[in-house]
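Model: Ready when you are.
Researcher: Fold this.
Model:
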Amino acid sequence: MDLARESFIAASGPGGQNVNKVATAVQVRLDVFALRLQPQVFARLKAAAGSRMTAAGEIVLTARRFRTQEANRADARERLEALIRGAFEAPAPRAKSRLNRVGKEARIKAKKTRGAVKANRGKVEW
């Protein structure tokens, strides 16, 4: 079962006359629903893919960085693999920061000082 489909399209950029004759850019389409991912992994993949994911649940990647089909095909596959691998890595839970009494006092003092600077701005009365 082949989940990803590759098609070759005309590329822009370097290549001279070759660009006009040969379809060197690669467009890879992957059906995400066929992967049967867990909901949290799917959500991370959807967020990482952004606008590259269609409403039909396909991730569309276009690789046109290189001058040959083989290099662009390898580039597209690497990028797709990196995108999927990144979705499987759960983000580290955020540790709540703790501020001690001295830190709180220093923050309040800095706020008061900044407020005093702003309060002194404006029209000057002679």
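Researcher: Now this one.
Model:
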Amino acid sequence: MAATTPNLWQKLFDRAPSGYRPGVTLEHLRRNLGLAGCQVLEPGRACFSLADGVTFEVHERTESQLLMHIVVCEFRLQCSAASGGSATLELHHTGAIRRSGLGWKQKGGEAGLMETLRQRLEQDRTLYQALMPLDFKRLRLERADGQWTVVLEHMGGSEVVNRMPAFRRYIRVDSQQRELLLTALIGFRRVLEDH
């Protein structure tokens, strides 16, 4: 009996929330972004291509709460890394009322990597100016197996699903945020590639 208990707990917490419809939020986002190059890889996961050759994936992820859940879309960009080793860096906006800059946290990896990347990012004015007004909840840079992965979760491109009272609401990415988001993804490729 004790051996099956972890499996039972895993099933309880790993299952999708009631009412989750894989791929529906992603389809809203696809129409919202208006990009011609889109290939659905599976329900809840798609690959987008930009005209300049940059490709990125979007993955749906659910967050369960009492009598409701949120479907968020994570943007994932991969590019080659010049050096090996693993590292995880997290970025966030600083400032209590107004955004005053970008804060960084390094969770493992080579010493000095965060400072080097911070300087490169701040020197790339296009990327920095796109990130400051960009409404992201999470932004993580991960280096592993000779690749960088940028994981960005925007505040838009998500769906709120409530069970009582029953409603669904898609939170769109407006045209200004769309341009900032695409500029940031292109900029990250430029800054991270071969670093």
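Researcher: Key takeaway?
Model: Residues 8 and 114 are 40 Å apart (CA to CA).
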